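Hey, why these numbers?
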Amino acid sequence: MIGIPALLVLAAAGYRATQLAIHDTVLDPARAVVFDWHSRKTDSPVRTAAVTLISCPYCIGWWISGTLLAAYLLTTGQFDQDPLLVHGIEWFAVAGAAVLLNRVDDTLGEVGK
């Protein structure tokens, strides 16, 4: 099981990667391609799901947190030390902490306006 320091670092990385995927201008061209692709067939469930995924911080944040956790566990050799259920709980913890950071950021952003 990962420790609290690793959880905090992974949560911070998940938060930042989510912000990159959702808001940062460096990925505007990639998001524009997906939005354009969706606009050509708006009744497609797959295209709608793709747009939802890349525009929802909770949706994309979940998958980014899972990817970061898996990469961390695999590169540190910890993946097969615990049952898969434990890693699933770790995924919830990392994603939850990253979402909490997103909520704090959103709240502080609203206060500053």
